[in-house]
């Protein structure tokens, strides 16, 4: 776990890499496009609902609705959308980090088939749905504390993100389904927890998924170099 800050420092140092910048630009463009389309669809649905209630849809009300939808989408959906988009480009981040820092690993990595990618994505979605469903009743009970619910969701997202980011960097190197996970639970949680926290910070949240994928690559590859231990 103590290697996690060093992994993020290495990831930050490669943000200027042309290949990483290309992934960052593509993922940001697609993420923002999804929010624009979703926001427009939500605003249209709200407009139709208000019209059905015979509520005047003034310019002021339109602006207020757009603002509310934007805030809600950013708060509730950005993490999910950004990471879902990154799934399509994660290999490019991992390959860029491996090519620069771990050329032997890049040369020996296998290409995952579409079926394997789809299966892994479905496993991740199933984990997210199950864990969030289990956490929801507890989150409701913690509303009275004021801070308990945000902390719980940060912890849940940290656990989920740690596993997803590790898989991005690991699955191309896994020999078989029986292989043990390359990172300990605490390391995965630290990795995901940092990314989950960064996703709450304006502007930093645009970099967080790419930084997380790059940091996960460093963690997995350094772990492979030191079998039998999760220490530096």
Automatic annotation (TrEMBL):
Tell me one Pfam family matched here.
Answer: EI24
Keyword annotations from UniProtKB, A to Z:
Membrane, Transmembrane, Transmembrane helix
Top-rank taxon = Bacteria
Question: What protein name applies here?
Answer: EI24 domain-containing protein
Localization per record:
Membrane
TM region positions:
20-44, 64-90, 129-156, 189-216
Q: Which residues form a coiled coil?
A: none
Please report the record's description of how this protein sits within the membrane: Multi-pass membrane protein
């Amino acid at each position: 776990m103590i290697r996690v800050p060093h992994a993020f420092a290495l990831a930050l140092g490669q943000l200027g890499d042309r290949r990483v910048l290309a992934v960052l630009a593509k993922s940001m463009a697609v993420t923002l496009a999804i929010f624009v389309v979703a926001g427009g669809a939500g605003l249209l649905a709200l407009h139709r609902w208000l019209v059905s209630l015979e509520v005047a849809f003034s310019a002021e009300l339109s602006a207020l609705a757009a603002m509310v939808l934007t805030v809600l989408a950013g708060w509730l959906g950005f993490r999910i959308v950004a990471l879902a988009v990154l799934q399509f480009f994660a290999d490019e981040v991992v390959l860029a980090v491996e090519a620069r820092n771990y050329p032997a690993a890049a040369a020996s990595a296998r290409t995952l088939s579409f079926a394997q990618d789809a299966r892994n994505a479905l496993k991740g979605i199933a984990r997210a749905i199950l864990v969030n469903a289990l956490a929801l009743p507890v989150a409701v009970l913690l509303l009275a504390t004021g801070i308990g619910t945000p902390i719980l969701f940060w912890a849940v997202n940290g656990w989920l993100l740690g596993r997803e980011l590790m898989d991005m960097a690991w699955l191309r190197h896994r020999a078989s389904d029986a292989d043990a996970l390359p990172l300990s639970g605490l390391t995965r949680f630290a990795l995901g927890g940092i990314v989950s926290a960064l996703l709450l910070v304006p502007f930093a949240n645009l970099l967080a998924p790419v930084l997380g994928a790059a940091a996960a690559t460093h963690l997995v590859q350094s772990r492979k170099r030191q079998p039998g231990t999760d220490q530096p």
